[in-house]
Specification:
about 25% strand; Cyclic Phosphodiesterase, Chain: A; 6 helices; 5-stranded antiparallel sheet; 4-stranded antiparallel sheet; alpha+beta
């Protein structure tokens, strides 16, 4: 597996540099992603351009991916059976800006995080995103007021549904901090 990691991150923000080696996400299937991405493109186009609809799963990698590390992750994920995830209506907070789809049940995602973070590519202390409840973002860099305006606009049209989580995506940013899919990892024994 040849990965073209960005070497010059001088134009990136400090927090973006943490993601240089990539991360592993849950991405919904194309039909679900298309509907959520339609909202993301309208209400948060900059974030959408960086990464399509997803559920954050792993910390940023601390080591470059190698064939040995890839095989280790494949082995770990073979022990986790696929599971169903559900998303209803988006929600906004009165404490901070953002509109998200809460994902339920959270327990299989937490268990999957625990298994995945046993891999040797995760060398840092737990990243702050591990403390966030599982969600798919509609808009994140918006004010509280803007969040509630978005909620009003989409309350009747926002899709809801479910999907089988049977694979994960390893993504790595390009020089413009737009994440590219590098590999899909199947869950369970195939």
């Amino acid at each position: 597996m040849k990965i073209d990691y960005v070497t010059d991150t001088s134009h990136w923000k400090e927090w973006q540099r943490d993601y240089r080696l990539g991360l592993i996400l849950i991405m919904p299937p194309e039909d679900v992603g298309r509907e959520v991405n339609r909202l993301r493109a309208k209400y948060d186009p900059l974030t959408y351009a960086s990464c399509p609809a997803h559920i954050t799963l792993s910390d940023p990698l601390g080591l470059e991916m190698t064939p040995e590390r890839d095989a280790e992750i494949t082995g770990l994920l073979s022990t986790v059976e696929p599971f169903m995830l559900y998303f209803d209506k988006p929600q906004a907070s009165r404490e901070r800006g953002g509109v998200v789809y809460p994902i339920r049940p959270p327990e299989p995602i937490y268990a999957l995080r625990t298994v995945l973070h046993q891999a040797s590519v995760f060398t840092r202390a737990s990243y702050w995103t591990r403390t966030l409840p599982p969600h798919m973002t509609v808009a994140e860099f918006v004010s509280i007021e803007e969040s509630w305006r978005i909620m009003e606009e989409i309350k009747e049209i926002a899709p809801s549904g479910s999907f089988l989580c049977d694979r994960l995506e390893f993504i790595v940013p390009d020089m413009n901090m737009h994440f590219q899919r590098v590999k899909s990892y199947a869950l369970g024994k195939r």
